[in-house]
């Protein structure tokens, strides 16, 4: 198997505060890795560092996708290269029609790949088909991006975007937060449908319950900016029982 | 002609009245619904010049017309003057929809050259239930002073003003409307969206005036400003005068910036920064853009994207 994403001894700061303190992680094609950790352990920082957000500064180390360092790439370049972030708090874009937003995103990728822009009618059909699986109705597609969506709708909309953009590396930042059990099931099913030998996922979560639905190949425990422990899915259950306290002590 | 905007109304209307040579005149007879959008296109080519056209539109009882104007000018280092006068008259149950996409040359990034756009536009709703609707997308000109207004004389007459004013680099726009309520039950709506980028200044200046006879007059005003970057300015100067206690007047105003969150969200989806800003700004203007005739709306969206070029990054 080839390494799709390789994080090498990564240190990152927000302002003057060091958050990530030496992360090492290799994700092979098709694998699903889960990152669990207490609040303030650096989980969300990790998702922003990977996607290249302003203000999240890498002080040393490297992040490679398909063997190429991403650190010099802008967020949009990374996205077009196949990096996708499902936001913990999806952002509202007032007045920006959902369809034109989705189309702009899909076309940006196509243009980069030297392909033809997507045909409008064909695109609407494609979106509808994928939206149906996620229980997203036409009315929601017609509204402005994320405006007036409930918490669950926003998360489903993130997964719809993932389905349309077909990333090679998807980071799901606390996709379970704010979801009731039914919504969690729908979202997880959507994610599971996108499992693919050519697509890897990094699932960031505080709670084990998401991992009952999206079953990871590996689980890592992040605390104090470092990966303290790695294992298979049983590690998540262990954390569920014992909490993060023991792991922090071991560090 | 001259009955809605008198010769001595202001300095520039006087200048226009003294020297104008051409323009357009539209007359819609009683009961006629003009089936197509009438479209005009203005261009200033000559160097060191001024342009002083006049437009007069008269809509007789129960008639309807939609009229569009587009404006462009080539790049010149010197300033040019555009001082036009537009007069609209709507009689009983008539409706005039007047749309403008103004893209005069705005000058370079240091403020050299560009058009001075000092235009007087006014409409009179003379008849009962008549309606005048102004829609404008202002992206060009070095300096714009323009206040398309409605005099609501007829009973239950309606005035509307939808405006997007976008300024970049060293541009200045001072634009807005006057809604003068004279007739009983007259209503007006004002939606103004100002976008400032670069080192530009963008001002909404407006007057809502309710005269003593305008029983139950209604006005709703919404002024939103969006700032792109940290060297531009947005100003809102609303005047409200109500001489009738039964009038209802609402005013809402907001000022915001393109948030880093919104921008990052678009970038993360692979949309580049310029396209992302254009998407967000067009979203901000949506309420006004949807008032434009279809073909114009598409053009205007692109124009906004182009006008913002170089404002980020």
Short structural description:
With 251 residues, chain A is α/β, with parallel strands linked by helices. Chain A contains ten helices and ten strands.
Explain this structure.
The complex is a heterodimer of chains A (251) and B (313). Chain A contains ten helices and ten strands. In chain A, a hairpin with a 2-residue loop joins strand 1 (3-14) and strand 2 (17-28). In chain A, helix 4 (120-133) packs across helix 6 (151-165) and helix 6 (151-165) packs parallel to helix 7 (181-193). Chain A is α/β, with parallel strands linked by helices and 251 residues long. The mean pLDDT of chain A is 90. Chain A has one domain (3-250): 3-Layer(aba) Sandwich (Rossmann fold). With 313 residues, chain B is of the alpha/beta class. Chain B has one domain (11-258). Helices cover 16% and strands 46% of the residues of chain B. Chain B has four helices and 20 strands. In chain B, the strands form two sheets. Chain B has an eight-stranded parallel sheet, covered by helices on one side. In chain B, helix 2 packs across helix 3 (273-289) and helix 3 packs antiparallel against helix 4 (294-307). Chain B is globular, with a radius of gyration of 19 Å. Chain B starts with 10 loop residues before the first helix and ends in a 6-residue tail after the last helix. At the A-B interface, helix 2 and helix 3 of A face helix 2 and helix 3 of B.
Write the layout of secondary structure elements.
The complex is a heterodimer of chains A (251) and B (313).
Chain A: E1 3-14, E2 17-28, E3 32-36, H1 43-51, E4 56-65, E5 68-69, H2 75-80, E6 83-86, H3 98-112, H4 120-133, H5 138-142, H6 151-165, E7 169-173, H7 181-193, E8 200-205, H8 210-213, E9 218-223, E10 226-231, H9 233-242, H10 245-250
Helix pairs in contact in A: 4-6, 6-7
Chain B: H1 11-19, E1 23-28, E2 38-43, E3 50-51, E4 54-59, E5 64-72, E6 79-82, E7 85-90, E8 95-103, E9 114-125, E10 131-138, E11 143-146, E12 149-152, E13 158-167, E14 172-175, E15 178-181, E16 187-196, E17 201-210, E18 218-227, E19 233-242, E20 248-257, H2 260-268, H3 273-289, H4 294-307
Parallel strand pairs in B: 1-4, 2-5, 3-6, 4-7, 5-8, 6-9, 7-9, 8-10, 9-11, 9-12, 10-13, 11-14, 12-15, 13-16, 14-17, 15-17, 16-18, 17-19, 18-20
């Amino acid at each position: 198997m080839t390494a799709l994403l390789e994080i090498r001894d990564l240190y990152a700061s927000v302002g003057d505060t060091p958050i990530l303190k030496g992360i090492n992680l290799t994700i092979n094609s098709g694998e699903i890795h889960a990152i669990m950790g207490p609040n303030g352990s650096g989980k969300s920082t990790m998702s922003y560092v990977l996607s290249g957000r302003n203000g999240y500064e890498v002080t040393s180390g490297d992040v490679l996708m398909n063997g190429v360092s991403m650190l010099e790439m802008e967020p949009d370049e990374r996205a077009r290269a196949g990096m996708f972030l499902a936001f913990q708090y999806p952002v509202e874009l007032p007045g920006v029609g959902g369809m034109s937003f989705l189309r702009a995103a899909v076309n940006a990728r196509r243009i980069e790949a030297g392909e033809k822009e997507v045909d409008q009618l064909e695109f609407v059909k494609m979106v509808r088909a994928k939206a149906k699986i996620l229980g997203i109705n036409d009315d929601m597609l017609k509204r402005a991006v994320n405006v007036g969506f409930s918490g669950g709708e926003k998360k489903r909309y993130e997964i719809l975007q993932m389905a349309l953009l077909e990333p090679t590396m998807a980071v799901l930042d606390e996709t379970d937060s704010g979801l009731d059990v039914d919504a969690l099931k729908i979202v997880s099913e959507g994610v599971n449908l996108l499992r693919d030998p050519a697509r890897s996922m990094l699932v960031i979560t505080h709670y084990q319950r998401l991992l009952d639905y999206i079953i990871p190949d590996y689980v890592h425990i992040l605390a104090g900016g470092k990966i303290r422990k790695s294992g298979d899915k049983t590690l998540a259950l262990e954390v569920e029982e014992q909490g993060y306290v023991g792991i922090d002590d071991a560090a | 002609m001259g009955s809605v905007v008198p010769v001595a109304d202001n300095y520039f209307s006087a200048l226009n009245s003294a020297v104008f040579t051409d323009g357009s005149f539209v007359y819609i007879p009683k009961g006629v619904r003009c089936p197509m959008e009438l479209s005009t296109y203005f261009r200033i080519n000559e160097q060191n010049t001024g342009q002083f056209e006049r437009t007069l539109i008269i809509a007789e009882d129960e008639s309807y017309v939609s009229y569009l104007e587009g404006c462009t000018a080539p790049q010149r280092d010197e300033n040019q003057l555009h001082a036009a006068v537009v007069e609209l008259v709507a009689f009983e149950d008539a409706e005039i929809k007047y749309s403008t996409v103004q893209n005069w040359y705005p000058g370079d990034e240091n403020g050299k050259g560009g058009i001075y756009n000092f235009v007087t536009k006014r409409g009179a709703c003379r008849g009962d239930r008549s309606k005048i609707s102004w829609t404008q997308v202002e992206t060009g000109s070095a300096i714009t002073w323009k206040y398309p207004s409605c005099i609501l004389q007829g009973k239950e007459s309606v005035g509307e003003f939808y405006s997007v004013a976008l300024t970049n680099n060293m541009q200045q726009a001072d634009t807005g409307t006057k809604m003068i309520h004279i007739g009983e039950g007259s209503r007006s709506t004002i939606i103004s969206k100002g976008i400032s980028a670069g080192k530009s200044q963008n001002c909404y200046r407006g007057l809502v005036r309710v005269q003593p006879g305008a029983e139950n007059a209604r006005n709703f005003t919404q002024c939103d400003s969006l700032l792109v970057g940290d060297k531009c300015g947005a100003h809102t100067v609303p005047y409200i005068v109500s001489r009738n206690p039964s009038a209802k007047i609402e005013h809402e105003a907001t000022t915001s910036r393109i948030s880093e969150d919104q921008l990052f969200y678009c970038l993360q989806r692979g949309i580049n920064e310029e396209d992302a800003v254009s998407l967000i700004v067009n979203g901000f203007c949506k309420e006004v853009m949807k008032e434009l005739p279809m073909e114009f709306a598409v053009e205007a969206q692109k124009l906004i994207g182009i006008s913002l070029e170089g404002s980020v990054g």
